[in-house]
Amino acid sequence: MFWGWYLACRSPAPAEKEAIPPNVLILSLDTLRRSEMERYGGGSSTPFLDQKAEEGLVLDQHFTCSSWTEPGVICVLTGQDPQDLGILPRIAEEEEMVQLPLGTPTLASLMPEYQRVLVSANPNLGPDRQTDQGYDQTILLPEVPAEDIKNAILDVADTLDPQKPFLLHGHFIDPHAPYAPPEAYRATLQGRPDLPWDLTTNEGLAEMAAVLWDLDEATRQEAMTQVQLLYQGEVRYLDDTLAQLFEELEQRRLLDNTLVMFWTDHGEQFWEHHGRGHASSLYAEENDGIAFFWGKNVHSEVWTGATTSIDLLPTLFSLLQRPLPKLPGMAVGQATEERPLFATLWPNNRAPVQSITVQNQTLLYNWEGKREFYKRDTDPEEQQDLYSPENPEAQSAWKRLQPEIQQLEPLAIGYQP
What confidence tens digit (pLDDT) does each residue in 12-61 have? Predict the structure, then answer.
């Protein structure tokens, strides 16, 4: 169906020489909500991403395996959920953070003939968590703006050996909080009322959150609006920076024989379920993902079947026609419509949360005892909880979630489902 697409992207080579395999550029985008893209009902913040998605193979029903970075990148780069590897990442103090076990096969380690470089703005994708396994070089630039990651990628690109294929991975932390876009991207805030907090800092966001529900309605709505406008400014800044990156790579002719994989690690909540940020739940605003593949000869196609983070590695290798060990993740086109998709979150000082999604129906289970059930085709924002012990669809999903709960139990030390 899809698997012959990328053969045409290989550069021609003289008969006496072996053709250089396609290069791979991975662009992982932190904290970007699916709903920000115009393709999914957003505004005009992502013209570049919308264009590239339109031109490539886009996975329109993509979900992330968690709602924060460490488990999200583990799923994508290993093709497995963390619990399949015997770990359960938890948001906690630094000394309690979980590392990816050494020797775990990863996307990079499975491509040994490539020049493999990671440039990351988030320490959760890097040596501290051992999530950079397989890369020959890791350049960690914690929490720097998108332009710095772009420049680091280009600096690496200028040192590559043109006779060898490259695997270049850039992880952008924008639009992660604090939402502080460059001044040129704050025009939508001009003329709005002054507020007593600096919403471009984590401290100001925390101060606002502490009193938000005690404010009068007008002030509360204004605060929420300004936070979201700052976030959207960061999204547009990221989008423009990615466009600049592509332009400069094009000038270097480094996109001629390159397959690009775009993906997000998680989304961001803006009070749809009474909170802001991520790593607090597995609702749609935090767990709906973005994923698509772009290349100059990749046909424009839309895949509407459900996919999840662990499917991206198998799909990439299928497009490259590379052999792959058997993994839980499945390449696009291999899964049935009835395949369940799972997500897991272990928040700080709280019980784990798990979810199962099957054919646009999602069951959420908080180990503190709460179960919720949503039909996403008619309720995409998950506002109408249909869970009932008498609901046969909810009970079917609950039954299918049981093995996942049992697998997690010995890993969630101190908690019982």
Answer: 333 333 456 799 999 999 999 999 999 999 988 999 999 999 999 999 99
Decide: 20 and 164 in contact? Cβ < 8 Å.
Answer: yes
Query: pLDDT-derived band of residue 6, with 50, 70 and 90 as boundaries?
Result: very low
Look-up: residue for tokens 């509360």? 220
Res 308 pLDDT > 80: yes
* DSSP category for residue 273: T
pTM equals: 0.95
301: how many CB neighbours lie within 10 A of its CB? 14
Token code pair at residue 310? 């662990």
**Structure token digits, residue 403:** 């093995």
For residue 238, count other CB atoms closer than 10 A to its CB: 30
State the Cα–Cα distance between residues 26 and 204, nearest whole angstrom: 33
> Omega before 175 cis (within 30°)?
yes
**Complete DSSP assignment for 353-416:** EEEEEETTEEEEEETTS-EEEEETTT-TT--S----TT-HHHHHHHHHHHHHHHHHTTTSTT--
Tokens of 166: 């490259």
Whole-angstrom Cα distance, residue 345 to residue 194? 36
Q: Terminal CA-to-CA distance of the chain, rounded, Å?
A: 42
Per-residue pLDDT at 389: 95
Cβ distance 75 to 310 under 8 Å? yes
Distance CA 318, CA 314 (A): 6
Put the strands of the sheet holding 291-294 in their side by side order.
137-140, 115-120, 166-172, 23-29, 258-264, 291-294, 57-63, 301-308
> Does the structure show a pLDDT above 50 at 169?
yes
Helix axis angle for 69-78 and 312-320, nearest 10°, is: 30
